[in-house]
């Protein structure tokens, strides 16, 4: 397919917010200042599971400098109403309960009370004077333990949804779902080689460098004004309104710059608390989490327990697959095991499949999304089993994947049939890469490959574009910009308008100033908000044709537009010349669009990695790493590479080091960035990237969305590499030095 | 509660004064008293490097320095990197190489990288990786950050030559 020639799409312009971000001028949430600002501090439960018998705030309230103290008693009483705030339907009581614990603390770090004072130090000192009487309860920390009959129950009123039916059993299992396609038992009967293994992965954190923060002012007109770092200002608006039980129109959220999120900055934690403190004091209140608060009090990604069985014919055709997925939701249901069930065999065309998924609550922080949530856990299991199948069959691991790769028309066990996808193209690019064709060389080394899928999402976005008389365009959109999306959106508008991208000035607006826009998540911004910008720009072009037609006294339908040049039968005017005359041709030109695009295109990503394992220490060194991903169309290739590199390195951390190291009584033992060890520059080589472009027919430029799929294949690719280096199958994450040594010793 | 101490210091070449409690960190003083919010707090225990500033020619994590220690010292922050309207070569290279995504780690990396290039104009990739390991980034995988520092080093050497 010949690619259309673009002027802006596919180039690498400097981002619009770049100067502010390299000079230290960009204002992130914690940088917000306001006259009369108070500082808040949140007191958190020291117990993983405890009944809160009483809270006495009197000593804190009497402490000099303290302006207000709040607890769950200051929140409206909870009902069992369901609310949709960002990531599907959740009972409001859970959202509220996570903001401030009511009745029980369900994890260590669960917010219990908060203090506002003139200084942060005073607020913290006062918070320590709050007397909370706890009755500690036995805690349960892993999915397999929590599923046992007789396990301590987190929620006495939680009843299992068993295959769509609500049961009367009180349990820690909030849901059991099943996807069936064909007959997996019959498939296994036909298989000639079968591999079955159990896997487990630890809880890991998104690890954004900027802690959660929020400033709120309960204004004297009754409106609640919020400034914070979030992935979705409308989510914060809606969630804050729900938690406080006020209409959404009473909340205005102004998104500040955001220092990373990766899914973790979708839920609200601090905004309603700051608002309550502000209501009591009449002053703006800012709360910023400490790093310990971030690790102990915000949602990490689920730890998981998985069993995967796959069977193939001798010729390499995979004929049957089964998966058992039990994910730890943390304190409240919602472990992202659903997406794991969608992704576990998504890279393959397998006729017979059975997938069981369990969403299990445990006494750990309530989990949140983390880049392709659920998919890396699932792929770790599947891709390890596929690797072992390849070994047993004596087939090259990429060839085996190609033989079974999902294509247009392949049906997934959870229902959908693929439209045009790039699974084969990604595998071909891996196979043909210089990396894969190069020799590995050296002892204690191993090479691993893996592929992974993320479906991406669409969801609503809004955009307006107004034209200035100097030939520039002001673009207003609602997607908070975590990685350069102001520019990737502006580029799409510029392409349509036929002007250079530096003539489009993008702004991320507050919730009063732009139409509803869903979260920056699901790899949706360049896709969906991109479509909004595309449509708004088309609206501008339509109006500009009318203006040209008016000047030339011709029928607008006869005006042709080519790259910003308006023409009709000998007449010709540039966009800029036409813009200079909008005053005389009818006044302002404003294009607008509100979209909810359905043509989302899933993305496949693959990894080739070489490792060396030190047989004395068990330390794994990444020697070489190649990330391959189908971008559909790379709007800004440098930012696509950046997403691939960032997701890859998060995957490397997940594979080799990162974990919530829990004591038996549910305390996180490594709740600092010294001990929760994320990769540093010294731990890594350069991360090579290969962008594959199989255009998504559902986007005018072919965009798929590239934020997430890249984190799916790293953990299994590294596990496969370590397995080949050591001769032992690695089935647990992280593969830190003690785990690798234990594996090596187990060989005897 | 303790009483305030008056501190006279130099920040980005200009004299600066502030009042602080003895327990307040230099980071708090820069951000809350001098309104220099370029240095960020990511951990408040010296492990993330987002608050890195230069102090008398050495880089420090300003969350681990007390405000009162700035008395008589010379502090350099990200706000002092650009010369008037001209960006520092590192700032330009970070933009050209797309070395930032969310940008929260960028001030720390810029200050740390400047200190490296001030003393070692031609560092190897390994040396850059070692030096910058004091600063955590979570978005970029560091690849483009390393390339940006290499580009800036090249350009700064050419200007000198
Ligand atoms: S760019 Fe986000 S942490 Fe560095």
Write a brief caption for the model:
Chain A has 748 residues and is an alpha+beta fold.
How would you describe this protein?
The complex is a heterodimer of chains A (748) and B (161). Chain A has 748 residues and is an alpha+beta fold. Chain A has an 8-stranded mixed sheet with strand order 10-9-11-19-18-17-12-31, sandwiched between helices. In chain A, strand 13 (213-218) and strand 14 (224-228) form a beta hairpin. Chain A is globular and about 85 Å long. Chain A starts with 17 loop residues before the first helix and ends with a helix. The model of chain A has no long low-confidence stretch (mean pLDDT 97). Chain B is an alpha+beta fold and 161 residues long. Chain B has 2 domains: 5-80, Beta-grasp domain (Ubiquitin-like (UB roll), Roll); 89-160, DNA polymerase, domain 1. Helix content of chain B is 35%, strand content 16%. Chain B has helices spanning 26-33, 89-96, 106-119, 125-132, 143-160; strands at residues 5-11, 14-20, 52-55, 58-61, 74-76. A 5-stranded mixed sheet of chain B has the order 2-1-5-3-4, with helices on both faces. Chains A and B meet through helix 1 and helix 18 of A and helix 2, helix 3, helix 4 and helix 5 of B. FE2/S2 (inorganic) cluster binds next to loops of chain B. Residues 100-105, 137-140 of chain B line the site of FE2/S2 (inorganic) cluster.
């Amino acid at each position: 397919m010949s690619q259309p020639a673009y002027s802006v799409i596919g180039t690498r312009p400097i981002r619009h917010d770049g100067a502010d971000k390299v000079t230290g001028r960009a204002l992130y949430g914690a940088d917000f200042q306001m006259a009369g600002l108070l500082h808040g501090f949140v007191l958190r439960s020291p117990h993983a599971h405890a009944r809160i018998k009483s809270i006495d705030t009197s000593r804190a309230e009497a402490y000099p400098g303290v302006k207000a103290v709040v607890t769950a008693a200051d929140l409206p009483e909870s009902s069992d109403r369901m609310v949709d705030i960002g990531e599907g339907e959740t009972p409001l009581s859970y959202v509220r309960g996570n903001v401030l614990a009511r009745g029980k603390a369900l994890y260590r770090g669960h917010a219990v009370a908060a203090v506002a004072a003139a200084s942060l130090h005073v607020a913290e000192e006062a918070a320590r004077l709050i007397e909370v009487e706890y009755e500690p309860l036995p805690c349960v920390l892993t999915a397999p333990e929590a599923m046992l009959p007789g396990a301590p129950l987190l929620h006495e009123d939680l009843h299992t949804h068993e295959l769509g039916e609500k049961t009367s059993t009180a349990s820690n299992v909030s849901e059991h779902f099943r996807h069936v396609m064909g007959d997996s038992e019959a498939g296994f009967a036909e298989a000639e080689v079968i591999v079955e293994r159990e896997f487990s992965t630890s809880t890991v954190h998104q690890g954004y460098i900027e802690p959660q923060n929020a400033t709120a002012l309960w204004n004297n007109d009754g409106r609640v004004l919020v400034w914070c770092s979030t992935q979705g200002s409308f989510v914060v608006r809606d969630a804050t309104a729900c938690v406080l039980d006020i209409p959404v129109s009473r909340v205005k959220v102004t998104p500040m710059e955001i220092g990373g999120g990766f899914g973790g900055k979708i839920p609200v934690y601090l905004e309603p608390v700051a608002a309550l403190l502000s209501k009591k004091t009449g002053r703006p209140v800012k709360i910023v989490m400490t790093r310990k608060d971030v690790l102990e009090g915000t949602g990490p990604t689920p730890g998981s327990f998985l069993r995967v069985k796959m069977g193939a014919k001798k010729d390499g055709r995979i004929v049957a697959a089964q998966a058992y997925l039990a994910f730890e939701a943390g304190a409240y249901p919602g472990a992202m095991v659903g997406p794991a069930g969608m992704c576990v065999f998504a890279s393959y065309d397998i006729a017979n499949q059975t997938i069981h998924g369990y969403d299990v609550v445990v006494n750990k922080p309530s989990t949140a999304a983390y880049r392709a949530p659920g998919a890396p856990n699932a792929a770790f299991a599947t891709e390890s089993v596929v690797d072992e199948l390849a070994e047993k069959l004596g087939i090259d691991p990429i060839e085996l994947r190609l033989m079974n790769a999902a294509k247009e028309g392949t049906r997934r066990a959870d229902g959908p049939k693929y439209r045009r996808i790039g699974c084969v193209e990604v595998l071909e690019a891996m196979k043909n890469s210089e990396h894969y064709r190069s020799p590995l060389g050296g002892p204690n080394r191993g090479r691993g490959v893996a592929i992974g899928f993320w479906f991406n999402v669409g969801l609503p976005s809004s955009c307006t574009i107004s034209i200035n008389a100097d030939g520039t365009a002001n673009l207003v959109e609602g997607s908070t910009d975590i990685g350069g999306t102001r520019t990737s959106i502006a580029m799409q508008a510029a392409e349509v308008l036929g002007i250079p991208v530096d003539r489009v000035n993008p702004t991320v607006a507050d919730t009063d100033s732009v139409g509803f826009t869903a979260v920056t998540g699901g790899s949706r911004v360049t896709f969906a908000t991109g479509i909004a910008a595309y449509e708004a720009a088309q609206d501008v072009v339509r109006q500009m044709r009318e203006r040209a037609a008016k000047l030339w006294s011709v029928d607008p339908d006869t005006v042709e537009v080519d790259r910003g040049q308006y023409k009709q039968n000998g007449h010709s005017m540039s966009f800029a010349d036409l813009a200079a005359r909008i005053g005389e041709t009818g006044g302002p030109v404003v294009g607008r669009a509100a979209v909810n695009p359905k043509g989302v295109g899933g993305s496949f990503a693959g990894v080739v990695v070489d490792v060396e394992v030190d047989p004395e220490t068990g330390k794994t060194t990444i020697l070489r790493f190649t990330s391959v991903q189908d971008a559909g169309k790379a709007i800004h290739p440098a930012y696509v590479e950046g997403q691939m590199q960032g997701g890859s390195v998060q995957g490397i951390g997940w594979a080799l080091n990162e974990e919530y190291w829990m004591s038996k009584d549910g305390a996180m033992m490594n709740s600092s960035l010294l001990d929760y060890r994320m990769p540093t520059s010294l731990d890594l080589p350069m991360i090579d990237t290969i962008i594959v472009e199989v255009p998504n027919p559902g986007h005018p430029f072919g965009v798929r969305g590239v934020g997430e799929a890249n984190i799916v294949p790293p953990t299994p690719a590294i596990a496969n590499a370590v397995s080949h280096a050591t001769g032992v199958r690695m089935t647990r994450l992280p593969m830190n030095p003690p785990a690798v040594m234990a594996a090596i010793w187990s060989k005897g | 509660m303790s009483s305030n101490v008056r501190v006279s210091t130099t920040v980005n070449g200009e004299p600066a004064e502030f009042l602080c409690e003895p327990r307040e960190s230099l980071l708090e003083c820069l951000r809350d008293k001098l309104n220099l919010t370029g240095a960020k707090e990511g951990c408040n225990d010296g492990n993330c490097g987002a608050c890195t500033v230069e102090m008398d020619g050495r880089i420090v994590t300003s969350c681990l320095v007390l405000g009162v220690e700035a008395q008589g010292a010379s502090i350099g922050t990200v706000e002092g990197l650009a010369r008037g309207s001209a960006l520092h070569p590192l700032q330009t290279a970070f933009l050209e190489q797309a070395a930032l995504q969310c940008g929260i780690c960028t001030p720390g990396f810029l200050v740390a990288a400047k200190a490296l290039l001030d003393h070692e104009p031609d560092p190897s990739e390994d040396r850059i990786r070692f030096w910058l390991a004091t600063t955590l980034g979570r978005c970029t995988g560091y690849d483009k950050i390393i390339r940006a520092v290499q580009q800036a080093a090249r350009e700064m050497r050419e200007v000198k030559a």
